[in-house]
Amino acid sequence: MRVVESAFLVSLIYESGLKGMKRGWRLHELVSCFAREPVARREKTKGGTSMSAKEKAVEVLGNVANKITNQKYIMAIKKAFVTLMPVIIAGAFATLVSNMIMGTESGLAHFEAFRFLADYKPIMSAISYATLNFLTIGAVFLIGIELGRINGEKSLFPGLMALIAFISVIPTTLELDVNGTATMVKDVLARQFSDPKSLFLGMIMAILSVEIYCKLGRIDRLKIKMPDSVPSNVVSSFSSLIPAIITVLLTATLGFVFHNVTDLYLHEAVYKIIQQPLESVVQGLPGILTLMFVAQIFWVIGIHGNQMIKPIREPLLLGAIAVNMTAFQEGKEAPNIITMPFWDVYMTIGGSGLTLGLLIAIFIASKRTDMRSIAKLSIGPGIFNINEPVIFGLPIMLNPLMAIPFILTPLVTGTIGYIATATGFAGKAVVMVPWTTPVILSAWLSTAGSWGAVITQIICLAVATLIYLPFVMIANKKDMDQQTELTHSA
Amino acid sequence: MKRIILACSAGMSTSIVVSKMKEEAKKRGEAYEIYAIPGETIEEELQLYGNDVVAILLGPQVRFMKAEAESQAKPYGIPVEVMDTLLYGTANGAKILDRALQIAKK
Predict the structure, then answer these.
(1) Which of B8, B61, B95 is facing A302, going by the closest CB pair?
(2) What pTM does this model have?
(3) What is the predicted ipTM?
(4) Smallest Cα distance from A39 to chain B, Å
(5) Is B2-103 a CATH 3.30.1050.10 domain?
(6) Can you give the residue ranges of every domain in chain A?
């Protein structure tokens, strides 16, 4: 289990880190190292000994990070979701306008003078249908392009290849219940194939088909030869012909054989065996807290933790918010408690580790000028949930004292947010908001105006501040000890 | 104009460092275009401006991107370096600019 390994590694970091502190690996000393050459500082932190357990742990985690991020399928999925973000935000915009302005119950159109706005609701519905309900199609196309690019393919064809392969395995005949009799409807693309419900089948088909296509493309015998006088663009369009035909032949056959052998469609199997179990893990509190825990461990060694968990987090949590937005748009009850905004609103206020709480704790209780000045520098970006200055400047990175509350806090506030949402005190997130949206505004917007969510978020921030406070006070004391030590030795 | 690129995850936290570096460059009268981009877009950026870029600096939180960035920068002979964590965390524009100019492609 990777999680268990990480937990073990982090305990190693703590233990050896505490030893390191006794050896004089202190915060303010590091900060005072600015004037020195980086090399000199590096020697200082090593303390002249051979590789310590802490360094080993950092190296191992660093290697894990390298492996994860350089894995090509993970790279392709991550990049695809970066490109998909505007699509989701556009859908969020439409949902928001549709309900808060054009809604006759809770929106501006509730008032007689603005009633006419409700007539324009179909515009917003069209936007939300085109964006949120076509998330899978976009993802398949983009993963295809990105994977093709990683495989050295210069054209955009792999995107199309992926889409064709995906469509080739899904049924286009629907059995509909019309007035009690089952009716077959031909030639339709059901919504469950374009919306997040088929996301995992889409990702699998995109990867599978582009891999096959690129492998076949490298086989010389499958290339159609052209005389030298033919322009290179024309040559390349012909050279991909045979690989494309073989690829789609294989995927369509796969869909056909699978259905005949198992009497299940591929999409049903992938949903039941892969997507649904993953969704239910992440929709449960232990699942989401584990994901957060892993991200925080990476941050503690100074590696972008969210980047590590994105390949799992993004499809599931973005899918969850897309489903909630669609339900909200249609006036139905949103099904998912844990969504991308849930993560941002309750578990990363001011950035990973709820460092806005840490900054407040420093302003309240810190007697150290070094920490106060970093906090001043960090408060501006912190309001927009950017906290690299805190993580690297304070630092939290490799600092056992601050790592404890940094890892603990989001787990506590995530639990608070979950309980508040599950009991109905806070509204579920029904609108995607960018992660840079400031505190209070993010809770209010993402839940389409739930004051319970705003209050819960404020409670989370207060709890974060309380958790960080004692550690800030210990940091004060450590600084004083250091001062006395220095005077004694001098 | 010669360009110095800083890259991190979304290009946001790095833009804090960028503004400090710009201030410093202005003070010294150095004419460089300094800006932040998301790490994922380094390749596209180089396709456009590869010949003008003299250095690529990565945020320490995305140091795992170094190998990939290096392979993308190699054809242009651009050096890639991960910024020092403390200089980065404290947004020490002067020191990071020093380092960038030190490694910059001549």
Answers:
(1) B61
(2) 0.79
(3) 0.79
(4) 11
(5) no
(6) 2-70, 72-95+121-277, 292-489
